[in-house]
């Protein structure tokens, strides 16, 4: 092995190192792209979840209002009945 073999090895190692650096750069870009895509997917899922939750809450709120209205109607009838009973008791 002479000096030319050592020089050849150094050139090949330099080229190999350059290739390693290029692959590293490619991998980092791929990771960054995947990270960006994952963030987009998570943002979309969060938006859709909150949208669905909002719809659910509005439906439950509507149901609750209807139940409150029914309860108020029922209580108003009880009030009328109570008044009639009181009037009848007074007449007796």
Short description:
The chain has 92 residues and is an all-alpha fold.
Explain this structure to me?
The protein is mostly helical. Helix content is 97%, strand content 0%. It has one helix at 3-91. The chain is rod-shaped and about 120 Å long. The relative contact order is 0.04. The mean pLDDT is 86.
Task: Identify the notable features of this structure and list them briefly.
92 residues, mainly alpha, rod-shaped
Tally of strands: 0
Q: Whole-Å distance between the termini?
A: 130 Å
Low-confidence stretches: none
For the report, how would you describe the main beta sheet? Answer: none
Radius of gyration: 39 Å
Secondary structure: elements and pairs:
Blueprint: H1 3-91
